[in-house]
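Project outcomes to date are best conveyed with an example. Our students and postdoctoral researchers have been running inverse folding experiments weekly, and each run begins with a structure described purely in tokens. The record below, which covers 139 residues, was selected by the lab manager from last quarter's runs and is presented without edits.
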């Protein structure tokens, strides 16, 4: 009986270690519901994200035409950094305090990565008291 208990505890401990998230686990490429593909990467002590593909975004839009800064409206969307400042919180296992630029509206949102799974992440975008939670597929 003692061997079975030790074996079960070892398995439970091993499984829990396997599922614990680390800060760099967020890095990679994701497909967003608005048809953009982005790449999240480490930038100094935080995480950022840039557009890597448009996939027919906003009926073929390729320039940042809704940017609130008129001087940037001819900037290409591909390569544009749209996520900045995400920081890993080891206590909650979430990435917090990020900012995300929504090119389809020309607006900035607060961003938090709530959950990370093998094939997707769950993100929460907020502006003032409005919040929206969506999943991004890992590619």
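After processing, the design step wrote out the following sequence:
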């Amino acid at each position: 009986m003692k061997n079975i208990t030790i074996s079960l505890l070892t398995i439970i401990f091993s499984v829990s270690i396997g599922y614990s998230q680390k800060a760099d686990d967020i890095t990679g490429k994701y497909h967003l519901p608005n048809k953009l593909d982005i790449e999240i990467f480490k930038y100094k002590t935080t995480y950022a994200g840039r557009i890597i593909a448009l996939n027919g975004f906003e009926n073929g839009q390729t320039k940042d035409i809704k940017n609130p800064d008129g001087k940037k409206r001819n900037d290409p969307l591909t390569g544009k950094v749209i996520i900045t400042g995400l920081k890993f919180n080891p206590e909650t296992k979430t990435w917090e305090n990020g900012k995300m630029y929504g090119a389809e509206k020309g607006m900035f949102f607060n961003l938090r990565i709530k959950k990370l799974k093998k094939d997707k992440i769950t993100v929460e975008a907020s502006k003032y008291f409005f919040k929206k939670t969506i999943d991004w597929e890992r590619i």
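The domain at 24-138 is CATH 2.40.128.520 (Lipocalin). Residues 33 and 69 are 25 Å apart (CA to CA). The training component of this project remains on track.
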